[in-house]
Amino acid sequence: MQTLEFLAVSITQEINLNQIALHFGINKKYKWEDILILKEPELKGILKEAEEKTVYCFYFGCLVGINCTKYDLSDIYNYLCQIDSGIDRKPDHHKYSEFYRLQIKENSQVEVHNNYLVAPKNLDFYPKIIAIVLARSVALDRIEDNLEKVSDDIERVIEYLDKGKFTISDNNLAKLSGKIVRYKYNTISYLMLLDKPDITWNNEGAEILFLELADLFDLKERYESLRHKTENLMDITEVFAMITHAKRGTRLEWMIIILIALDIVISIMEKAFF
C-alpha cells in the first residue's frame, strides 16, 4: 500500500511566487491563481532528505508539503523568509495547519474519509486537488482568527457606548473598516473560494473529488459564515461612522452658537464703553 501524507500550513498573508521561482531558476511568470511546485531538485538544498517530497506554494500564503514533516516545513519556511522579505519570521508559523493522507490500495473503491482518502491508484490530479483544498482550509483558519480579533475590537467600542462614551477616532474607525474589507476581499479573491480549480472543468473525476473534499472541510459554509460576519461588522462600523459624524456636527453647532454669543457680547461691550 502506497501512502502520501499531506501537511498544510498558513505562514503569512501573501507569498511572492515570482521572486521565489526566480531564486530557484524557474523561468515562469506566476499569476495570483497559479501554484508554485517545489520538488526534489529545489528541495535538496533546503532539506536533509528531499527524496519523494513535494511542496505546493500558494500565493495566498500557504504551503502544502507531501511526505514532509513538521520540521521540513519549518526549514522551508525559514528558507523562504530569506528570499521573500514580505514573509515575517514567526515562532508560531504552524498555528494554522491541516493534515490529510492519501492511501493507495489496489482493488479498492474511492472513499473520502475525515482524515484520509482511499483510492485504487494515484491519479495525477489527486495530490493537486488535496493540496488546494487543504491550503484554502488553513487560509480560512487564519482569516477566521483575525476576523475574531476585529470583532473583539468592535466589542470593546460597543462596551464604551454602553457606558455613554465614544472615543474612537476617524483614523481608528477607518482602520477597522479597512481590516473588514480586506478579510472579505481575501476570502473571495485570494482564496478563490467561489471558484473550482481549472483542472475540474475538463476532468469529471477531479471535479467530484474537489467537491467532496470541499464539503468535508466545510469550505462553502465557512465562507458564508465569514461573509455574514463581515457584513454585520461593516454595518456596525457604519453606525460608528454615523455617531462620529453626529458628534462632529454637534460640536460644529456649539462652535457656531459660541461664536454668535461672543459676537453679541462684543457688540454689547462696544456700545457700553464707547
Automatic annotation (TrEMBL):
InterPro entries the UniProt entry points to: DUF155 (IPR003734), RMD1/Sad1-interacting (IPR051624)
Q: Where do the DUF155 domain residues begin and end?
A: 55-226
Q: Which Pfam families match?
A: DUF155
Q: What is this protein called?
A: RMD1 family protein
